[in-house]
Amino acid sequence: MDFSLSKEEQLIQKAAAEYAEKFIEPVAKQIDEENKVPDEIIRGLGELDLFGIPFDEEYGGAGAGYLCYVLAMEQIAAASSGVGMILSAHTLGLGAIDKFGTEEQKKKYMFKPCRGEEVASFAFTEPGTGSDPKQIATTARKEGDYYIINGTKRFISNAGYPGPIVVFAKEEETGKVSGFIVEKWCEGYSISEPWEKLGMHGGPLLDVYLKDVKVPAENLLGGPGMGYAILQFAISFGKVGVSACALGGAEAACREAFKYAKEKMHRDQPITKFQGIRLALAEIAERVEACRWLTYRLGYLADNVKNPAQFAKEAALTKDFICAQIVDISRLAVNVHGSYGLMKDYKVERLWRDAIMGLQIEGVSDMQKEIVAGVIIGSK
Length: 380
Description:
- The longest helix is centred in the middle third of the chain and has 37 residues, at 227-263.
- Strand 2 and strand 3 (146-157) form a beta hairpin.
- The two termini are 26 Å apart.
- By secondary structure, this protein is α+β, with helices and mostly antiparallel strands.
- Helices cover 53% and strands 15% of the residues.
């Protein structure tokens, strides 16, 4: 069992870390306050091929796989979870097209997003669905060579950027859920103002309104009634990005805690002299290491899926564990800062707000535990 990174993996990790430090970190507070990522950041990510890391070169990607995607994402998210959220949701949407799209669909809809010229989205959630696809109210009506889609999607990332969006809708004729590739900003497509969420600012969540959106039948993804299968498989890969974002936040909280503890003085000595501080720092470091290797493992598994159900279990397990850990890690980091940790002048305040989001997005914690238990029980 080899835990070392290859030269290619190290280079991608280093490139992402250098970009995050040089370009994202200086504007991270601005991103948090304005809830918007500057366009030049998006362009820079595209120039580094970070929008297409796991996808094949023949479709415009870097062909580096999901482990390299994890290595890059942790560095980007450590600087700004909002930027990480954009990349994660983009890779989720594009991943669905990559796994289930026809050759023609991939060639048409993957090139520009892989290069960062467009940003992909994934639209399942609705005002009344929660985690239950059977409650999808968005409809798709077949008319000749087209489908007419009507409905509202809620909390959709990247909905304001041009590019493809994978939309799930219930076919009126069969009552089954199917996936469709829709081009954002087509006729009948509109969005709400961004939701004012607690953390992960810069990665806006919007409602998407679809009114008589005309989609070519050739844009049906994976075949009629395949929506639930697409959703299950794609969301498993989406949890790779969420886990990597959480890992980045955990590492950032760890760095901030150690930095503050070594610089904050008490009677001419740093507060690291206190046993309580030292124990807190050690606990943070232990938890971060557990998160790191579990996330790296998930990236490896995403590149070597043999059993989709088992991979779904590993993705759910990893996402739930790490998102719970980062809440405790960021809380401990705030405690190390004392009252200063509650002030917006210090990064840990933002990291704590960001951390709380993780357990609720892309499947709440209890749902992840249900997935894990269901697969294990079924295999015994």
